[in-house]
Design a protein that fits this description.
Distance between the termini: 19 Å
Helix content: 10-25%
Order of helices and strands: EEEEEEHHEEEHEHHHH
Number of domains: 1
Number of strands: 10
Mean pLDDT: 86
Structural class: alpha+beta
Strand content: 35-45%
């Protein structure tokens, strides 16, 4: 697919703390067309996942890092979106807040979401509780203030784009199992590779719907 938007997990690992953090978009993942059921209404919706690496400190002055293979790396956070720029779409709302301006009617007819890769912003993170687990959520996105633009932190995570039209299977192999199952449940994956042997595809598809300018902003 082309990443053109149009107007038509809990666990015991280290959680991103609530607050406003400097973020850099480094990852865009095509989740494909997913079956989404809500209040008995079933829809097929094209989903994507956007991921940011975060920089800064928590309220206790501890850096927003985790240890990976013996190295300190920025914490990351993700958000899933329906690939749509309709007036009520969450993706449109977040992008307009990030840009600091609304989309024109012309822009809303087709926006290449891959332009987000490498762009910085402020990520407002909140936490919620569900079934005894704590979740960190991307509540909103805003542009970097002018004073921060000259001192942006250097990128750490390599940029990555996973496109189901031209899947990078080496990158796919690095995704965690639940993310792989979600992608395998997409209509695009099934169309190319067939249905999964177990019921995992159906479960992953249903879960997929639950989660729901200046030179520094490249879109």
């Amino acid at each position: 697919m082309s990443f053109i938007a149009q107007d038509n997990g809990g666990g015991d690992f280290k959680r991103v703390p609530p607050g406003v953090h400097v973020g850099r978009c480094y990852s865009l993942i095509d989740l494909g067309t997913q079956r989404v059921e809500y209040l008995g209404d079933v829809k097929m919706q094209h989903k994507i996942m956007v991921r940011w690496e975060l920089f800064g400190e928590d309220e206790q002055g501890q850096p927003l890092t985790v240890t990976v293979d013996g190295q300190e790396r920025p914490m990351t956070i993700s958000k899933r979106y329906t690939l749509s720029l309709s007036p009520k779409a969450r993706l449109r709302s977040d992008l307009e807040s990030w840009r600091g301006k609304s989309f024109t009617d012309e822009e809303a007819t087709g926006f290449d979401v891959s332009k987000l890769i490498g762009a910085y912003c402020l990520v407002n993170v909140t936490q919620s509780e569900s079934n005894g687990k704590t979740y960190s959520n991307v509540a909103s996105l805003t542009p970097l203030p002018g004073a921060m633009k000259a001192n942006k932190p250097a990128p750490v995570h390599a940029n990555e784009v996973f496109d189901l039209d031209k899947p990078d299977m080496e990158l796919f192999a690095k995704f965690h199992e639940k993310l792989q199952e979600t992608i395998k449940a997409s209509a695009e994956w099934i169309g190319k590779n067939g249905q999964q042997a177990s019921g995992q595809a159906s479960n992953a598809a249903n879960n997929g719907g639950e989660y729901e300018i200046d030179e520094d902003i490249h879109f």
